[in-house]
Amino acid sequence: MKTAQADTLQILEKVIFLKKSMLFSAMRTAELRAIAAVAEELSFSDNDAIVRENDIGDSMYLIRTGEVAIVKGSGGEERVELARLSAGDCFGEMAVFDTEYRSAGAFAQGICTILRISSDDLVDVIHEQPNVALGLLRIFVRRLKKADEVIHKLTVDGRRRVG
What we know:
- The protein has about 160 residues and is an alpha+beta fold.
- It has 4 helices and 6 strands.
- It has one domain (about 1-160): Jelly Rolls (Sandwich), CATH 2.60.120.10.
- About 45% of the residues lie in helices and about 30% in strands.
- The model has no long low-confidence stretch (mean pLDDT about 85).
């Protein structure tokens, strides 16, 4: 019986966490319970790879505790940190819509607890709760704007060096 109570408590804790996230905040408790039931909690140590660049994307991740560095560059390339994410942020969400290779890696910065939600499970949630898709679109737009700013800055800086 203690295992059932522990499972119920774990799901309740996940529901509370999900409700606080921008992506799932508009959802009702019943829907959050369904997501919490399929969200796998994973723990990582400092510098552990959560996902690697060029892996096939099959899940998205929500950071419950700790920080994650999103890194581009593998093999002989210079590694560049694209973003530093913290509790409440998500990553890997492009895998929901595009099961191609991951465009960047994600590495734990210190001890992290992450919720993993498979693409198939998240697509089911989106069908039931279209607000989740709108939340993902907001995240995509915010990240695209940030990328545009970086590209602009690099372009302007490059012109200054050349001219």
